[in-house]
Design goal:
5-stranded mixed sheet, disordered N terminus, about 20% strand, 28 strands, alpha/beta
């Protein structure tokens, strides 16, 4: 949940007029939900699809608790020191009050098909059994550790047809968010430990194919002294960390979706200092590439009381920047697009599904007109964009008087199990929620579409080929970029070492050895760049990788085609400006900003690169050799 919750509160305002409730969502039984989709999930363009290629829209909720509820001060055993006076005992909330099967029945009643399960890294290593009081309504869970309880919850969810996406929410059991020691993936632990925990969980649930995804880290933000960054190559580089973890997870379990959330906050929030909420904005010029290019999902969080440059705080940490709920309808649409939904545009290097994996608002008893108006407008945006979503949170408690202790929760349970939820009368959110869950959208088969993915050699190797990851270093001493095994190299940046891969019109690969080209021995079809050094793939092979020293070309990596390839030459120079196709691959996005780029057409393969040390060109690529695929 957004860091603002620990920084301040909003004053209530007058209530808005109630709207008539929309039609309730269709309620599926567990068996019906299970029969409606086939695991595992993957992606096609901006859509998540099931194993049969059918659209699987993530209609999700966050079942919080296993990430911890303690707010960081006072006795951890005192319930008043926990979020909303709710002590989860580091397991999903509600298991003390309602049998698991009945909780899942309520999730079905909300119209959900998937659950985001936040957890703390501490849970992975916690060997202390949960107290019996934490599972009063589920005595079968007595004596289990938090991880074993999570196992049982996941078994229950997936047996009842739900898709489960695990979310690494925190390092410790302290409730997120703020300056709480959980700001980064490597706050309170090493990056390697974080990755090891993820690989452990991937292997633990590998045989349960309805555990469909790994949501790598929640709301990365500034700590006391340092910001996280996107692409600097250091130990605060979220882009680098997400890719490293994602690829390690896919090596352990190639079926999982990898969910990447952008930077939630940078800077010191004062009116005199730079600050803001980048989220997915940096993806426009530096996207992520995985060894499975059909497994990446991006995510973003939106809360009305926060803003593009507002932490959400009142008092300390508050600035005069507008909150999302202060924006005009047009401004809100633009902000959500700029920070997240632009990623769903087709045919770009960044194209992927975007899951709004947290949003929410106070419900029953709330009289905040701004928040109510924002929630209605924001759910309209998701409806209009056919967005995947996950409401925060699903489960809370009601107190002895029957009042929700956390009125953001979609269902609240009394100590005796009595339910008070959005599906019951008296919650103003019902109209917007039913509208969202019932919204028409893309269904059925989603066709395969071409992909384009970046290679980023700014600071280190960028090896996203499963084949080459299993082999020794093919260009020692140089930085190397290898396309995913289903793609080929189609473009290079001049002087910045970035590359572009695609599977558009992809020729089938042959079974022969891959060739490392370091000289001109394969230039046999004429001197296509007189006076320049040339690296050319052997006949009937195509470029799938390259290496550089500094930014100078060192080698090409070429993979064999299963059938003969044409050899007619088209030399594409880009030493004095961009030379990219007017239509087709990633033509509306910049994968090497500030540098000239050369890119073959979608119906061509890259067969060679020309470079020179003359004229102070310093060995950077000046031209690429493009040849037709057919």
């Amino acid at each position: 949940m957004s860091s603002a919750l620990l920084l301040g509160t909003l004053a209530p305002t007058a209530a808005t007029a109630a709207e008539p409730a929309a039609v309730p969502p269709q309620v599926l039984t567990g068996a019906q939900l299970a029969a409606s989709w086939t695991a595992p999930l993957s992606t096609r363009g901006r859509y998540v699809v099931d194993a049969n290629g059918e659209r699987f829209k993530l209609k999700s909720g966050n079942w919080a608790g296993a990430q911890g509820t303690w707010e960081g001060s006072g006795d951890v055993n005192d319930v008043t020191n926990h979020q909303a006076d709710q002590n989860s005992h580091n397991i999903p909330l509600g298991l003390d009050r309602k049998p698991l099967a009945q909780i899942l029945s309520d999730f079905h009643a909300l119209g959900l098909n998937s659950i985001r399960l936040p957890f703390a890294n501490a849970l992975v290593h916690d060997t202390t059994p949960v107290p019996d009081a934490a599972v009063t309504a589920n005595p079968q869970l007595r004596g289990k550790t938090p991880l074993q309880v999570l196992d049982s919850v996941i078994d229950g969810l997936t047996a009842d047809g739900f898709a489960v996406i695990l979310n690494n929410h925190t390092t410790s059991y302290r409730f997120c968010c703020g300056l709480d020691g959980n700001e980064r993936w490597n706050s309170g632990q090493s990056t390697q430990q974080w990755i090891d925990d993820w690989v452990f969980l991937a292997k633990r649930y590998q045989n349960n194919k309805r555990v469909v995804g790994a949501d790598l880290r929640n709301e990365v933000r500034r700590d006391t002294w340092n910001d996280s960054n996107w692409g600097w190559g250091d130990d605060h580089d979220l882009n680098k960390a997400l890719e490293e973890a994602g690829n390690k997870i896919l090596q352990a379990d190639p079926d999982l979706l990898i969910v990447m959330e952008g930077i939630n906050w940078q800077g010191i929030p004062t009116d005199l200092t730079s600050h803001g909420r980048p989220m997915l904005t940096p993806v426009a010029t530096l996207s992520n590439t995985l060894i499975r290019s059909d497994k990446l999902v991006y995510s973003a969080h939106f809360y009305g009381y926060t803003g593009p440059h507002h932490t959400g705080a009142t008092g300390t940490g508050e600035t005069h920047d507008p909150r999302y709920h202060d924006l005009t309808p047009a401004e809100l649409v633009r902000a959500v697009d700029d920070e997240a939904l632009f990623v769903t545009r087709s045919g770009q290097h960044f194209t992927a599904p975007v899951w709004i994996s947290e949003f929410g608002v106070g419900g029953r008893g709330s009289t905040d007109a701004l928040e109510q108006d924002w929630f209605a407008r924001f759910t309209d945006i998701m409806v209009n964009n056919d967005s995947d979503f996950a409401i925060w949170p699903l489960v809370g408690w009601t107190d002895a008087s029957g009042k929700p202790q956390d009125n953001w929760a979609m269902v609240n349970y009394a100590a005796d199990g009595t339910r008070l939820g959005v599906m019951d009368s008296g919650d103003w959110r019902t109209t917007a929620w039913n509208k969202l869950v019932n919204a028409p959208g893309r269904t059925g088969q989603v066709a395969q579409t071409p992909r384009w993915n970046m290679l980023n050699l700014d600071y280190a190797d960028y090896n996203v080929s499963a084949t080459m990851l299993a082999k020794p270093d093919w260009s020692p001493g140089n930085r190397k970029g290898n396309c995913p095994d289903t793609q080929r190299l189609v473009g290079l940046g001049r002087s910045d070492s970035r590359g572009l891969c695609t599977d558009a019109g992809q020729p089938a690969k042959g079974s022969g050895a891959w060739t490392v080209v370091t000289d001109e021995r394969y230039v046999t079809n004429g001197d296509w760049a007189s006076g320049y050094n040339k690296l050319e793939c052997p006949r009937n092979t195509f470029a799938v990788g390259y290496s550089v020293n500094g930014n100078a070309m060192s080698a090409l990596l070429c993979a064999p085609a299963a059938a003969s390839l044409p050899t007619s030459n088209r030399v594409l120079w880009f030493d004095h400006g961009d030379n990219r196709p007017a239509t087709g691959g990633s033509n509306a996005s910049d994968w090497a900003p500030g540098y000239y780029k050369g890119q073959c057409a979608d119906n061509e393969y890259l067969a060679g690169v020309a470079h020179t040390w003359k004229w102070l060109h310093y060995g950077v690529p000046d031209a690429v050799l493009c040849r037709p695929l057919a």
